[in-house]
Every structure is written in C-alpha cells, then in structure tokens.
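User: Hey, quick favor. My workstation is busy. Could you predict this chain's structure for me?
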Amino acid sequence: MTANDYSLRTIQGRFLLIPALVLAVGCSTSTPPVSEPTPAAPEEAPTEVVQTPALPSAMTEAKAGEFDNGKMWAFEYAPLEYFAETYGFQPDNAWFEKARLGTLRLSNCSASFVSPNGLVITNHHCARESVTEVSGPGEALLDDGFYASSLGDERETSRSIDQLIAIQDVTAEVHAAVEGTAAAQRAQAQQAIVNELSQRIAAEHGGEDAGIVVEIVGLWDGAKYSAYVFRRYSDLRLVMAPELQIGFFGGDYDNFTFPRYNLDFSFYRIYDEEGNPVEPEFWFEWSEGGVEQGDAVFVIGSPASTSRLQTVAQLEWRAAAEDRTIYELYKSRADAMQAFYDQDPETGEEMDLRDEISNFRNAEKAYYGQWQGFQNPEYMARRRDSERQFREAAERDPALGPRIGQLIDQMAGIQSQRMEYAADWGAFIAFGSPAFEAAAVQRAQMAYIYVSASQAGAPPDALADLKGDLLSVEDQPDALQQGLFAARLADFEEHLGAESPIVQSILRGRTPDAAAAAILAQSALADAASTAEALENGSLTTQDPAIQMIGAILERLRAYLLAFRGFAEQEATIASELGRARFDVYGITIPPDATFSPRIADGVVKGYEYNGTVAPVYTTLYGLYDHYHSYGPGSDWDLPPRWLSPPQTLDLATPVNFVLTSDTTGGNSGSPVINAELEVVGLVFDGNIESLPGDYIYDTKVNRTVAVDVRGILEALDEIYDADRIVLELTTGQLVETEAEADAVISGR
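Assistant: No problem, here it is.
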C-alpha cells in the first residue's frame, strides 16, 4: 500500500489537474479570454456514464455505524475516555509524547526510530527509490538486496525525514483571516495566513538553520487548524533492504489481500550535521513476544487522505464518474509502461520504470476497489443515514438551524453541474501531467501558447520564459511515448464519443494507435532536438499536427477546467462551513479525515471472515515456502537464491504477517504497530481488499490492516541475511561498527 497515497494531489485531495498555461490562453494571446470561472454548457452532450445502482429497499434502512468515519485520531484531539473504556488503558501525556517522537514521516510513507542510535524502520516499498539510487556500477541491489555490514558502508541517500516535535492550535488566526471573504478569494486569503503563521512559528523554534519545517493542517474540513512543527533530518542513509522479490512477495496479485507472506521492511539510519548517528530522545523497543489474538495495538503514522466527511451527493458523483475514471487512467498508463518495459527492459531499468509501474498498479487496484465499494448498497445507505442524523442534530441547535440542510443541498447542486461535465472529466483527466502524458502532448500545450503569444506580439521576456518551459520537457523512449500518446487519444474517443467533431478532427478515421504514430512522425515536438531546431529556425507553427490537436480541444478543455475550478472553490467554502458545524455537533467523537499528518489509530489483532472461510490472525514462514512450491519458480511467488537454501536453524513457524483492526490508509505504509508498553510489534504495509472503500467508510467487520510481524523480520535478519549488527542493535540497543564486532558480542554472551 503506497502513499496514495495514490499520486496526484489536488484540490480537496481529488484528481483535478489545472494546466495553468492552458487557462492563460487569451490573457496574453489573440485568443479571447474566458472572463468568468463559471460552468459553461458543453459543446456536445456527455457520453453515458455508469450510474450508481438503485438500492434494494431493505438496504435503505441500514443504520450508520459508530465508527463509519474511522479511528484516525489526531494527537491533539485524542479520545482518552474512549481508550479507557475500550481497552482499560488511558495513556497519559508522556505516553503520547513518546509515541509522537518515536514516529517519523518520509515524503511518501511513515517510519519510526527503533534504536537509540538513529536506526529507522520503514517498508521496502517506501525505500525502493533509495535502493535504486545507491546502486553502484554493476550492482542490482533492487533484485539482490542490500546490507551495510559496517557503519561506514551505510549509503547516503538524497532523502529527508521529519519528526513531529510540537503542535500548536492556530484555529482562531486562520478563521479570522478568511472570515467574510468571497469563495473566489478564500483560498488566497487562507494561503496568506498559512504562510505568515508557518514562517512565524518556524522562527520561534529555530527556523531553517535548526531544520524546522511548519505545516498548517486543517482538520474537520477546516473546523480546526493546527500548526505541526517538524524537525527535518537531511542525512538519511540506507542500512538494509531485502530483495524486491521478498519485499514484494506475491506481486500485484497479492497486493491488498490477506493471508500474505511478505517481508516488506527496510532500515535507514539518521545522521547529524557532524556525520554521527543521531541519538533520539525516544525510540520504540523491539518486542520479543509479538502479538496474539485480541491484543490491543496502536498504529502511529501519517495516513495520506480520506474522504469520510464528504456529503452523499459528492460520493454519488464519485460513484457515477470519478473513481472509475481514475482507475482507468492508472490502468491505461500502467499498461503502456508495461508494454514498453517488456519490449526494452534494459532501458526500463535505467528509468526505474518497474517502481513506477508498481505504484501505478497499486493505485489502479485501490481506485477499482473504491469504485466497487460504491456498488455495495449498504455502504451508501449508511452514509445517507449518517447525513440524516447530522441534519437532524443541526436542526435542534438554534445556532445552526436550517442552514446545514441548505448547505448540503447546495453541495448536491454542484454535483449535478459536475455531471454535465462527466465526459470532459474522462477525456481530460490529468491532461498534461508529466506522470501520465506523452512528452509531445506536454510540449504541444506549451507550444500552442508560445506560437499564439508570438503571433500576438508578446514581450521577448515572456516568450523566453515560455520557450524555456517548452525546452525543459524531457524526452521519452519512442515506444513509451507512442503508448502514452495513444492512451490519451483513446481517452478522447471513449469519453467524447467517436462521432464528436473533436475526435473526428484528431483521429480522421484512424485508431488511436495509428493517429498517435502519424502525429509523432510529422510533429516537430516529438523530441527535444527537433523542438529546439523548430524554435531556432522559426518553423514551429500552428500547422504542426500536435499543436493542431491542442487547438481542436482547447475551447472545450478551457471551459471544463474553468468550470471545475469554480466547483472546487464553491465546494471548499461549503465544506468548511459544514466542517465547523459538524465539529459543533459531534466534537472529537468523530475523527477528522486523514491529511498526511501524524495520527494514532487504535485496534486489536483479529482475523475476519472472507471468501467463505476465515483468515488467520497471522501467517508463518511455512506459508511462504508453501506458496513458492505451489506456484513455482518464475512466478510472483518465486524466492531469491539465498532463501532457497536456508539454514536448518530457520524456524518456519515464525509469524510473518498479521492483521489488525486499526484504521489505516495510504501514507500509513511503514507505520509502527505498537502495544501499550510502547514496544513495536509490527510494521504496517497494506490493507485487505475489503478495506479499499475505507476512503469514504470504515467497516469494522471486514476492514483490516496488514502488518509485517517483528518476529519474522528478526528471524530473517538473523538466519537468512546474517545481519548480526542490526539484530544486536534491535535487541539490546548496542551500536557496533562492524559485523565482526557484532559476531564477537553475540558469541560472547
């Protein structure tokens, strides 16, 4: 489960990408500007979209569950009474401080200190980019694994890692700054106060020189705002990572499933400015006993985003159009990348394409699971009941009155307007994004602006900036660019319709593959060299076929983008008011949506029913070897060479993975699972397939987090990797320089 969280971060965490250059057309060129960012009628009727199924009458009476909004508690608003009632355990401030200081955050995942010498554990998939980065000439560390047998062999990476050292309530300041502003100016006013608060609070804690980074985090859709003060460590070195085949055992087939047999772990170490291992104030000690059925556990990490506070109407838009389209986007681009990788694996490895494909497949499966969840009528019925309860509670409050119902109805009206653009959403989703788009399409956007601006007599400085942006687009291998270009043209055809004048003008009776090949063969924008030459000799004109494609879609693309920007501004205003009202009604009994800020999620170790059987609480190394022998060499359940001849002392009964009820999502990857004694018992790396609708509803019956068992990690380190230096540090806290020293200490016990 990667930090999805599942890539594009947008307004309210959804998938709206606004190409600024496209919106700018008309402001500095001969094309007339669009003056108002309001919905415009589409040129063509939208194609049919998948509608949410009618709910069976029995399901319309389903009641909202107590924890439908999950259990991702913010540290500053932890439900102490609930913890005491549920687990007979009420942690004090010191407990929470240690839990917070022991946990860390990477750019894409969570992590934690597990020794007094700056040793950090996270997932293999969270550290995969570092494994590739530190690989030297002739090394294939992603496939062979990496272990620094001495302190001096720990390899520097370009990554940083953050520790949350303080939290400050800044709600009053933010609310005062945005109170009374119009929807269109609200974001600008909020950003201004956020910048001011971040700079001031960072300076109070020592500023940039002290490695301080401050984030202003909105909770409950802006009902509360907290300033999170992070200490950023910039010297992060890779210590150990197993082979990809063991860190991603079962591949995409096993992704989001359980039972699992996956040793998805890796180790970093943090160094200080003098080049010495840091000595953290607190770290999680390694548990000797692990977990058993029914044990209370807590996940500390930074879940990326959830949407559990969205209204029913917002979810219905997602069910009808949004989530399925995002799934299709990831699938089509992953298919294009995989086709290229299969054709040219050597170049694919140089591009680190395997990791990118893995991330896209992860997102593909995640969004498909979310969309499938909408087909469960009970879930939508529970969300309707939750919204009904909120309306009724608000109506009983004289301070809120009928205003809440009006806001919910206004939000529904926005979603109805969105549906008029469902075809455009599918055709233009993530248009121009380097992560999803052919290089020629990226260049074509900029080239259209450049040529139009040049014809309109734009100032030389403006043209130079546009030219620089255009030349900055990196080349892609021909076959990959062809696949990505064809995928975009297929989006146009599928969502706008084959009879659309836009599609007909671009495809001209050809298939998307054939049209992409023809455009690339004739366009000066197909590669960087020919682009530079065309700019230099002045031959780049609107007659270039790639630029003609932009011209064909531009007006409709602009209308769609401006409309969705207007929707987003209106939604943000309404969501903020609803968030404040919801907090007035429920307080901290309903946790805020995830925001990739540190949270604590409680739960128990517990199996569940699935597929006509019962999932065990944990799996063992016996199962790992059974899968290898059942599926055979060359499969996704193949084993690295060192695992094929294990020592006789390897205990096959050792637990490998286990499941727990704690509420997690993307971004929680690498989170420590701790017990009440603040010992680390596991490492979050996934959720089960039933957990995917957890973006908008948490189902306590079947939602499970999947974790690597610390017993399995230690057994692998000791018996398979002979990493005595790490074993000694995890079990005793002792740091030694070399593997030989560790062997001497262990043998002398």
